[in-house]
Write a structure and sequence with these properties.
single chain, alpha+beta, Double-stranded beta-helix, 8-stranded mixed sheet, 5 helices, 22 strands, 30% strand, binds 2-oxoglutaric acid, binds fe (ii) ion, Taurine dioxygenase
């Protein structure tokens, strides 16, 4: 196979000339890993995907991890996590945004960020494509760091930020709550959706990518709570809040974003240590199914804030 690499908007590349049904030798596997590290997001179109092929493909990038939300694991393929909307699972994922009722909208986040040990990446494949909405957004936090001015970079080197896991979007301090209303079945605590609880986690404000060594902005709006001990870096608490507001606004700049509009046969892989992602969600009743495999993260990027 000879791969053709086409840049996407702002982050990632589309890989053409790839066929998931064909054998992938060691040289091609290494090429795919290198492209993943270099570009952060890889998009493949028109693939004849089966659960077995997705699982085998995903293993090229590292051992697979089972998601903590066991209720949605597939019986036949424990490595596969089935994301579904448009069916009876919608209730807890439904909320109102500026008067519009939306299922499955997710703010910018990194998966398993709240554990201090985010998974290295994940592969999503289209099983059933939404007729309306249902885009997945990716944001390049390496580029977002890179374009910051030297003073901000120097300040970030001295700072750590805390993330506070919570089920209620209204408890998150830096997401856009304007016009947001939880739905009648929105979870109020982790056990409402059989989710474990997590203590706070702390990350450097500028994280060094464990493989490429590049700096990645450690600011992601979901669960972002505060700068830890801002006074140690000469900041008042008010200044630290303004800094986080400024940095979150920076990560929302479309110059860092690619929004994937799903088509049948699509497969998307991203580097969860570099790219944040989000989901736009779908209108009520719109069917959408995505199969997900998760590539384990064996690196502790943050630390758990317990008993300090
Ligand atoms: O539904 C999507 O498009 C993405 C969901 C998501 O955040 C994930 O799979 O980690
Ligand atoms: Fe996610």
């Amino acid at each position: 196979m000879t791969l053709i690499v086409k840049p996407l908007d702002n982050i990632g590349v589309e890989i053409q000339g790839f066929d998931i049904t064909q054998p992938i030798d060691e040289a091609l596997q290494q090429q795919l890993r290198d492209l993943w590290y270099e570009h952060g997001v890889l998009v493949f179109r028109n693939q004849a995907i089966t659960p077995e092929r997705q699982i085998e493909f995903s293993r090229i990038f590292g051992p697979l991890e089972l998601h903590p939300l066991k209720a949605t694991l597939s019986d036949d393929y424990p490595e596969l996590f089935e994301l579904e909307s448009g069916g009876d699972k919608d209730k807890s994922m439904t909320a109102s945004y500026k008067g519009e009722t939306i299922v499955g909208r997710l703010d910018w986040h990194m998966d398993l960020h709240y554990t201090g040990k985010p998974n290295h990446g994940a592969v999503l494949t289209a099983v059933e494509v939404a007729g309306e909405g249902g885009l997945t957004g990716f944001g390049d936090l390496a580029k977002a760091y890179d374009v910051l001015d030297a003073d901000t970079k120097a300040l970030l080197d001295k700072l750590e930020v805390a993330y506070a896991f919570s089920m209620q979007r209204r408890h998150m301090r830096y997401v856009d709550l304007d016009g947001y209303e939880p739905g009648p079945h929105s979870p109020k605590k982790p056990s409402d959706v059989n989710f474990p609880d997590f203590p706070e986690s702390v990350y450097p404000a500028a994280v060094t990518h464990p493989i490429t060594g590049i700096k990645v902005l450690g600011i992601v709006e979901q669960f972002l709570d505060r700068v830890v001990t801002p006074h140690n870096a000469g900041l008042s608490n008010d200044e630290s809040i303004e800094l986080l507001e400024r940095l979150v606004a920076h990560t929302r700049d479309p110059q860092f974003h690619y929004f994937h509009q799903w088509q049948p046969g699509d497969m998307v892989l991203w580097d969860n240590w570099r790219a944040m992602h989000c989901a736009t969600g779908t209108p009520v009743g719109v069917r959408r199914r995505i199969n997900r495999t998760t590539i384990q993260g064996d690196v502790q990027l943050g630390r758990v804030l317990l008993g300090e």
